[in-house]
Amino acid sequence: MKRAWSADELARDGRFVRIEFMARAKDPRPLPSEQGGRRAPLTPDRPGAPEQARSLMHGIFTGEIQALEGAGRTCWDFPVGNGPDDAPFELKLDMARQCWDEARHCEISVKLGDWMGTEIGEFAESAFLYEAACNPDPVLRLTGVNRALEGLAIDVFNTMRDFGEVSGDPILEFCEDWMLADEVTHVKMGSDWLRRMTADDPERRERALEFQRVVDKLFSIGGIRGEDEDSPIKLARRFRELAGFADEEIDEIAQLSHEARQELLTQRRRTVEAQAS
Amino acid sequence: MAVVTPETFTMVLYDHDAIVAAADAVAAAAGLPTSEDLRIEVDEANPLARTHLLSIDPIELAIDGGAFEDPRHPRQLDTDAVAVVVGRLVLQALDRRSPSFGEPPPEDALSVPHRVAWDVYSLGRLDRLGYPGQRQRRLYNFRNRHGFTDAGDAAFDALWSGEALTWADITGLSDDARALMAS
Question: Which domain holds residue B57?
Answer without folding.
Answer: 2-97
